[in-house]
Amino acid sequence: MEILWSDLSGGDYLVLLFLVSCSLGPYVYAVLSDVSISLATVLSLLLVTFAQEAIRVFGIAFQPFAFLSLIPLISDDPTLVHRWITAAWLHSGWIHVLGNILVIALVGVPLEQKLGPKRWMIIYVLGLLAGNLTWVLTHADDPRPTVGASGAAFGLLGAYMACWPRDEIEFPLLFLIRAWPVWVICLVRIGLEIYMVFDLSVQDRPSNVAHLAHLGGFFGAYMVSRPIARTGDVPLEDELGDELAVGMKEIGADPWMVAGIEAPLPVKRILHRLREEGDEEETRRAWIEELADNAICPICGGGLTALSNRSGHYYVTCSTDRKHISWP
For residue 215, how many C-alpha atoms fall within 13 Å in the half-sphere facing its CB? Predict the structure, then answer.
């Protein structure tokens, strides 16, 4: 049974404040500490799930599903508009939440490195809303509560597919955990969702899984992500080739030389190969990626990341602070 604002007691407001603190706390820390928003989202979802479990174990009267889940039948009530967002932080169990955070972590982290945290969060929320809207439009008279971040997770896949489909990311697929091209991951996952929707419609039976919300989140984010991503520093995949014609930057003095620090021997070897073979774009990219994987920032000792800017120039930068290194 659903709960309205007028039904809440003082104790209910305290429990609600606890849940909101669990959900927003990781984001506040991420912004203040300049750490990953995608990982903050993973922690946020986990903390809310722990809070749900604590509410159940201690027998607290307030029921999160009754007040925070999305119920299609009453979704047009303006006093319940919060449910469109809050439902994505509730899950039906540990398997449900772990399945979502697996996608958010494995897909979201590399996608955030390309989009930046603000654009990433915009696409995450748009995928969430697109999934919920798809479910409500196709189940308008359904009185059952709908919960989960699946629409947002599939939205991240849709955004990656729209912008950088040939990127390879580590992902469990076809019983193998390895680096798969994004388009392969999307083909398999969306293919399975479409099959399940078709199978359920043929057999005319209900499902506890909102497959249409998954599809809505994927295609909703797919349609809006390119204009959002285009305002960032990393060019879209099909625009990269045109921008490479601008030419490559001179390699010049490496960061270790500039800092007056002798590079470790493995790094020296990579730098030597980069100087010898870096006149070809693909070769330079390969050696810069090798450098990012095997070297640390000479300024702070943090990790390095290989990126390409909007002009198509591939470069290595400090994962902690880009002001430390942006080379070549």
Answer: 16
